[in-house]
Design a protein that fits this description.
Elements (H helix, E strand, L loop, with lengths): L5 H17 L4 H12 L3 H13 L4 H12 L2 E9 L19 E11 L2 H13 L5 H4 L27 H21 L4 E7 L3 H4 L4 H14 L6 H16 L13 H10 L1 H11 L3 E5 L2 E7 L13 H11 L4 E5 L5 E5 L6 E2 L5 E5 L6 H14 L8 H4 L3 H5 E5 L9 E6 L1 H15 L8 H10 L3 H5 L4 H10 L3 H15 L2 E3 L6 H23 L8 H5 L8 H4 L7 H12 L45 H5 L7 H17 L9 H8 L1 H16 L6 H15 L1 E4 L7 E7 L8 E8 L4 H8 L7 H16 L4 E3 L10 H11 L2 E5 L3 E3 L2 E3 L1 E10 L2 E10 L5 H9 L11 E7 L2 E7 L6 H4 L8 E5 L5 H16 L1 E5 L7 E4 L8 E5 L6 E8 H8 L20 H6 L1
Length: 998
């Protein structure tokens, strides 16, 4: 066996950690990984594993591996509870509480040392990946990320394609094919099947192992399969101790099981395709979708059989695929002939018959509903949508007749999807403001999660706890915790198949699961639950384990610390990106969801340094825009946290021009590439330079002494735009908001949030290329949201940030978010530029409040190049400086001005002058109450304004397409040959050669 180094083990560990980080269903494995990594012997454990893999047959190494195998156990998780009123079908009640909750069915999950999980991932990387090509075409689950050339697993964190994308493909591909046939006047039948207890009924034995080894040998140029042997040692050890030890089961919870599950049914897939010749066949683990074209369901039923049974007999039984029998419970069973242990669940067999001459409304409605659900998180959740009460999202009534009759109500169902979506949106919108939320929502959530519902909806526990932590509601947090702990104690067996041991194990599992949910939620604000607060409440809990869970040495606090140190908490809820990767994350005062973030806590300068271990083992791709934002904030804090005087700030602002972007990129590359790529140092160096040039190119512009600009290019920003669609925000700036920000108390309340979200979503609805917002229109704490929206939607955003007060210095910053995409990764570069000229009125407001204005003689503007468009931006009063606004004459296609300006007449003259003198499109965005937001072209008076607006109470965007090509073609011509019906002549000394370089 080859020699393995720690770096080889780290590759498998990172992929394992990343998979579990994104998997919402593996909280207990998440805890194991967090505690494994934060253990003081972490690197020593990796080294021991490397030594074992280098010599697996050594005596000491065998003892080491056997010790790992001896630690294998299993978790028992609840799968299904019995209905509360099963015997009373005519009773419809909204009371879901009872004295006991009967458990009907359980699932068993692999529980073993993290080292064994790493071995299974290394098996996939080194051996198991070759199985992918034997089944990959029709299988959508556990779809490996493979290199297009050699077919091996890709470098980096990725192992499998995202499950939600693959599930959508599996479902949507079939529906698309069905629709295509119907449009061609061909009937289709959609058959969906589900394999019963697949992982428990798969026969993973020595015979299966030998068959698998043959396929591995044929696909690999290797003499031995050491990882395969180790994998089956793990599987067989688990089979011996699992309660279902009578079966050769496939362990649930090992990543390798996904590959084996697909491989096990490759003959099943092949036979169905051969015998049925379906228009579409797709399998997602144990869910099967078959589409048969030119097929109908017979209307003449065989005596004693339903139409469904007739259909299944004709297509599955008579064609030799399945055997049909009736078991002891009079249930129809369909077993696959080649694998008799594989059985189809009768209750989950569904047939959808669509005839081409009939209405397709059902299929179309289903598709629209799917599309609606798929885009649920594409837009920021609107306030109007999210203020619809919780009850309407989670309760579903079923009717037998008209909805206007009470007696038509047949039942009340709770929607897990509805609850999850509502809570996720509520969390996202609450992160924009730490103000308290509505009492109605809190009451509805606590009322809904009562009794058996709280147990059946355990997947939503973490979201509920997180929501209460974000809105800082300790009482609701406690009430929810107490309700769940009380209901766990009420679980009882429903039938003989559930043993007392099962009940005990399920209670233990749910208790640990509850602890993990609390740990993940409170990791966002570690001081949320204090010892004193907990001590006053804990005695009412029946479980001794839970009574001590929140004490200083309790289990929840221990798990929480592990999540923080391993960065396995929910990073997407941290309002300042990458804050948890800095040393300051160990500060006991830190609150990752507080909008004032670092500005209100005491810290030392060395706490603003990245933790190298956290970066090295980061479980996800850390975007450049995240480094961008945190670096800019760190620099502001370093230079100005304790600065209370107006002084020379040259060094800081020069650093912001280019040097800081180099530092950002160094950390970005180290984290995402240097640690993860299996290439030589010389190759890494070349790769780094190439990648940097994909992300940005910053070069010097003018060489004037007192005023300068640089070229700021985003090469990988996308296809060059011929028509640049700009969205102008028509929104009102409240003077009080400006004052509040200066006093470090920005308004992030309901109405402001609503206005902001409407503008962001409106730009997406209009599919604009750019969104321009006025000066001082966005609180600094919302910049990460703005940046992420720019990244996800690939939209240029220019926005004036409200004054950011650090110490006693007030910064007026203009943010430019420049999106890009490289190798399928959407990212963004964020430019923050200090306003060079504060207006007289602005200075008065700041000094009146005993604050300072940052002073610098170093003036730097940016000439941005994004999607082929050359543009620059100004922050309001800067335009009053004739030298500053003349800087880009003949160099740009568009000039953008974000303003909060009352003197509209003066700036109206400037706008008309700029569009002619610079000869460009001029986009000016002002507060709507002052007005004169406009897009002005260098044309004659009656044609120059293609948009000009003022007033209005609603906050909207208006769009306009700017023809970049037409303007450039005009400017390339000598003045005597320019057609003034299109544009006004270019001004004297206009550099026509510059236009040809664009």
């Amino acid at each position: 066996m080859p020699k393995y180094k720690i770096r080889d083990i780290e590759i498998g560990y990172r992929k394992l950690k990343s998979y579990v980080y994104y998997d919402n269903f593996s909280l207990l494995l998440r805890q194991k990984i967090a505690q494994f990594e934060t253990n003081k012997d972490f690197e020593n454990k990796l080294e021991k594993l490397a030594n074992f893999l280098s010599n697996p047959n050594g005596a000491q190494e065998q003892k080491y591996f056997n010790n790992l195998l001896s630690e294998i156990k299993y978790y028992t998780a609840p799968k299904r509870f019995a209905p509360l009123r099963e015997e009373e079908q005519l009773v419809i009640s909204n009371n879901f509480s009872a004295n006991q909750y009967n458990l009907e069915k359980v699932n068993y999950f692999f529980d073993g040392p993290v080292e064994l999980h790493i071995i299974t991932v290394l098996w996939i990387i080194h051996e198991g990946y070759v199985l992918h090509k034997t089944y990959s075409k029709d299988n959508y689950a556990y779809h490996l990320e493979l290199e297009s050339g050699n077919g091996e697993v890709v470098d980096g964190l990725r192992l499998f394609k995202p499950y939600f994308e693959q599930y959508q493909k599996w479902r949507d591909n079939g529906l698309d094919i069905a629709k295509e046939f119907l449009e061609k006047d061909t009937d289709v039948v959609i058959l969906t099947l589900d394999i019963k207890s697949y992982y428990y009924n798969a026969k993973i034995d020595t015979k299966f192992k030998e068959n698998l080894r043959k396929d591995l040998f044929s696909g690999l140029n290797k003499r031995k399969l050491p990882f395969t042997d180790l994998l089956f040692d793990i599987i067989f050890a688990y089979q011996k101790i699992c309660i279902k030890k009578g079966n050769n089961i496939l362990p649930i919870g090992l990543l390798s099981s996904g590959i084996l599950a697909n491989y096990y049914l490759k003959e099943f897939d092949s036979r169905i395709k051969k015998e049925l010749s379906p228009a579409y066949y797709g399998r997602y683990v144990d869910d099967i979708q078959i589409i048969l074209s030119n097929t109908k369901i017979g209307k003449n039923k065989t005596k004693g059989k339903s139409s469904v049974k007739d259909f299944l007999d004709k297509y599955l039984v008579q064609r030799g695929l399945f055997d049909h029998k009736i078991d002891n419970d009079d249930v129809n069973a369909y077993t696959f002939k080649s694998l008799p242990n594989i059985q189809i669940q009768q209750e989950k067999i569904l047939l959808y018959a669509f005839e081409s001459k009939e209405s397709r409304a059902v299929l179309d409605m289903f598709r629209r509903k799917i599309e609606q659900n798929s885009s649920a998180f594409w837009f920021l959740p609107s306030e109007d949508e999210i203020t619809d009460d919780f009850d309407s999202s989670v309760y579903q009534l079923s009717y037998s007749d008209t909805i206007n009759k009470l007696r038509s109500v047949q039942g009340i169902n709770q929607s897990k999807y509805g609850a999850a979506v509502y809570l996720a949106k509520k969390i996202k919108i609450s992160l924009l403001s730490d103000k308290d939320d509505s009492d109605l929502t809190k009451e509805q959530i606590l009322t809904f999660f009562k009794g058996i519902v709280s147990l059946e909806f355990s997947a939503s526990w973490e979201k509920v706890f997180t929501y209460f932590v974000i809105i800082n509601d300790r009482d609701s947090f406690w009430n929810f915790f107490r309700e769940i702990s009380k209901n766990i104690e009420k679980i009882k067996p429903n039938n003989e198949s559930i043993s007392r041991d099962d009940i005990k194990d399920v209670k233990d599992y749910l208790t640990i699961y509850l602890e993990n949910c609390c740990a993940l939620a409170t990791a966002l604000n570690p001081a949320f639950v204090s010892d004193h607060w907990w001590a006053a409440r804990k005695e009412s809990l029946k479980s001794k384990k839970l009574r001590n869970a929140f004490t200083y040495s309790g289990e929840i606090n221990a798990i929480k610390k592990a999540y923080l140190k391993s960065s396995m908490l929910r990073n997407s809820f941290i309002v300042t990106p990458l804050l948890n990767y800095l040393n300051i994350s160990d500060n006991e005062e830190i609150n990752f969801i507080h909008h004032e973030g670092l500005r209100i806590i005491n810290f030392k300068s060395d706490e603003l340094i990245f933790n190298d271990k956290k970066l090295k083992y980061a479980p996800r791709f850390l975007y450049f825009f995240e480094f961008n934002l945190v670096f800019l904030l760190i620099e502001l804090l370093k230079y100005y946290k304790e600065n209370s005087e107006e002084n020379d700030n040259q060094k800081f602002f020069k650093k912001l021009s280019k040097e800081i972007y180099e530092e950002m990129f160094d950390k970005f590359f180290l984290t995402n590439y240097s640690h993860r790529l299996r290439i030589s140092n010389s190759q890494i160096k070349a790769y780094k330079e190439n990648l940097r040039n994909y992300y940005f190119k910053i070069t010097d512009g003018s060489d004037q002494k007192n005023i300068d600009f640089n070229y700021f290019e985003i090469p990988q920003s996308g296809k060059n735009l011929q028509n640049f669609k700009v969205a102008v925000a028509n929104t009102t700036i409240d003077k009080k908001n400006i004052s509040d920000s200066i006093f470090e108390n920005p308004n992030t309340g309901y109405e402001r949030r609503k206005q902001f979200i409407n503008l962001i979503n409106s730009a997406e609805i209009e599919k604009s290329d750019a969104l321009i917002l006025p000066e001082v229109s966005v609180p600094y704490s919302w910049l990460p949201v703005l940046a992420d929206e720019s990244r996800r939607k690939q939209r240029l955003i220019v926005a004036g940030l409200e004054h950011l007060t650090i110490g006693r210095t007030c910064f007026n910053l203009l943010a430019t978010c420049l999106p890009l995409e490289h190798n399928g990764i959407k990212d963004a570069v964020i430019n923050l530029r200090l306003k060079h000229h504060y207006s007289p009125g602005e200075k008065k407001i700041i000094r009146q409040r005993r604050r300072y204005i940052p002073k610098t003689d170093y003036v730097l503007y940016n000439l941005f190049k994004w999607r082929g468009v050359h543009f620059a931006n100004y922050n309001c009063y800067e335009l009053a400086d004739i030298n500053h606004r003349a800087l880009f004459k003949g160099k740009v296609d568009v000039l953008i001005a974000s303003e909060y300006n009352q003197d509209v007449n003066y700036f109206s003259n400037i706008a008309e002058s700029v569009s002619r003198d610079i000869h460009c499109y001029f986009v000016q965005v002002n507060t709507s109450d002052y007005g004169d937001s406009r897009i002005t072209l260098p044309k004659k008076t009656e044609l120059k304004d293609v948009m000009r607006l003022k007033g209005g109470e609603n906050h909207i965007v208006l769009t306009c397409k700017l023809n970049i090509k037409e303007l450039r073609d005009f400017q390339k011509l000598s003045v005597p040959y320019q057609d003034t019906r299109k544009f006004k002549n270019t001004p004297p000394d206009f550099n026509h050669d510059e236009v040809e370089k664009r």
